[in-house]
TrEMBL record:
Pfam families: Ty3_capsid, zf-CCHC. SUPFAM superfamilies: Retrovirus zinc finger-like domains (SSF57756). It comes from the Eukaryota. This is Transcription factor interactor and regulator CCHC(Zn) family. Residues 320-335 form the CCHC-type domain. Residues 32-65 are annotated as: Disordered. InterPro entries: Ty3_capsid, Znf_CCHC, Znf_CCHC_sf.
Length: 378
């Protein structure tokens, strides 16, 4: 049966080979389908699946559409920064860096970079760009490449004399006290303006370590950082540790000072040995007494430190027996005209009587019968 099917198909094959025709000219009824050929080969067996769909050729892959870039509205949506051109070389370099970041985010194509960026000019920068457009023409100016546009801005807003000043600052830049972050920020700011002095990276690392303070510089140099990021991170870590140590020492000194002022006042000794004993009351060098806190002097009346004579309570409690006024004794009464060092004068009209002393010898006492001579035990 198989041989008979092949024999029946051979004449049709030879005819197709001898008389080739275009695919669109073939009549569908005369085309040999895969199922008919299988039936002829298999002799029309009933077990063949006649419901099987014919194979379909794979569809061609669609080409990806080329990226058209971004529109000016999409560019502005990334919030680019305007440029005035009157803030020095540092501001110009920073503006270029920020604008390049916006270009990358917005996926701006090369043909639109100069046009979009130049529309961010204002004031002095805008006046300069208008002169460039007049000199070169709009088509030529907007057709220039981004690198050429950057060089044009650097020549205008980063003059050589300012670059020399920045180079001197970069070479003499040093860290002040423990402000490591401020030192690092200024260091990279100068390095961006004078890139020739900051490359390759080993030179940049060496220059950065040179500007650190002595204690941190020696440790970072001994660590031999491989990248500038490693050097910056190590310097910041060491600076933070130094700041913490200083703060702890400052707090300890302050606490010790407060404790001394609270306990001993103006005295430097908390305990002083007197008469073989230790006293917890500090000795004051001003009033020569013992008391806490600030010395207020010594009272001239009661000789007790800590208050003045006009504030003395003992003086206020005293009353003169002569005039009846408080605050003094009769011996120092101003109304009597007496002083503490003067003797009391006798009243007028009276005579001063001198005391008499009677002295007898043993022989004289024996002659007088009224005198009893002897030793008495009391």
């Amino acid at each position: 049966m198989i041989a008979q099917g092949i024999a029946n198909a051979i004449p049709a094959i030879f005819t197709a080979v001898k008389n080739p025709v275009e695919p669109q000219q073939i009549i569908p009824s005369k085309r040999i389908s895969e199922d008919n050929f299988s039936n002829s080969v298999n002799g029309g067996n009933d077990h063949v699946n006649h419901d099987k769909e014919p194979r379909q050729a794979p569809l061609p892959k669609k080409r990806k559409a080329a990226t058209p870039g971004c529109t000016y509205k999409e560019f502005l949506a990334c919030k680019p920064v305007e440029f005035a051109g009157n803030e020095g070389a540092t501001a110009a370099v920073r503006w270029l860096e920020k604008t390049e970041a916006v270009i990358r985010i917005s996926k701006c194509v090369e043909e639109d970079k100069v046009m979009y960026a130049s529309h961010l000019f204002k004031e002095e920068a805008l006046e300069w760009w208008n002169t460039v457009l007049q000199a070169k023409g709009s088509d030529v100016a907007y057709a220039m490449g981004w690198e050429e546009f950057k060089r044009l801005i650097e020549r205008k807003f980063c003059p050589e004399y300012e670059k020399e000043q920045m180079a001197n600052k970069f070479l003499s830049h040093r860290m002040v006290d423990v402000d490591c972050r401020g030192y690092t920020s200024k260091f990279f700011e100068y390095a961006r303006i004078v890139p020739t002095l900051a490359s390759p990276e080993p030179v940049l690392i060496s220059r950065y370590i040179w500007g650190l303070i002595s204690g941190i510089r020696d440790i970072v140099k001994a660590a031999r950082p491989r990248t500038i990021d490693d050097a910056v991170e190590l310097a910041n870590t060491l600076t933070d540790g130094l700041v913490r140590t200083r703060e702890e020492n400052r707090r300890k000194d302050l606490a010790q000072k407060i404790s001394q002022e609270f306990h001993i006042g103006n005295s430097n000794n908390f305990k002083k040995r007197e008469n073989g004993r230790f006293s917890t009351i500090p000795f004051c060098d001003i009033c020569k007494g013992k008391h806490f806190g600030k010395c207020k002097g010594c009272c001239n009346f009661c000789k007790i430190p800590g208050h003045r004579e006009e504030d003395c309570r003992k003086k206020k409690a005293i009353t003169c027996y002569s005039c009846g006024e408080p605050g003094h004794f009769r011996t120092s009464c101003p109304k009597l005209g007496n002083s503490a060092n003067e003797k009391t004068k006798p009243a007028e009209g009276t005579t001063k009587k001198n005391a008499r002393a009677f002295q007898l010898t043993t022989q004289e006492a024996e002659l007088i019968p009224d005198i009893i001579v002897g030793t008495s035990i009391i």
